[in-house]
Amino acid sequence: MFRTPGPPALTSQAYTRDFDEVKRLGSTTSTARTADQTDAALWWHDRRSVSWGIKRDLAVTQRLDVLETARFYALADVTGADGSIACANDKASQARIRGTRATF
What we know:
The protein has 4 helices and no strands. The chain has helices at residues 13-26, 35-44, 52-61, 66-93. It is flat and about 50 Å long.
C-alpha cells in the first residue's frame, strides 16, 4: 500500500509555512491569489461525489469518440477510487489531529 511520510509536525517550520500559504491564498478575500489560481480552484472544485461534468467537458473539448470517452471515464474513476482508498488508509494510519473545516 502506498504510504506518505505523513503531515509535518504542528510545531515545524514546514507546517507553519504551509498553513500561512493556505491562509494567504485560500481566503475568499485573498489579494495574493492570481486570477488563474482562482479559475483553477473553481474549475476543479466539485461538491458532488462524482465529477461527471468535468469529465464530460474534457471528453468534448478533446473530441474523444465513444470508445475513448468510455476508457477515459473508466480510467478517471479507477484513479479517483485508488486515490480515495490510499488517502483514507493513510489518514487512518496517522494519529494526528486533522482539521475538517478552515475559515480564515
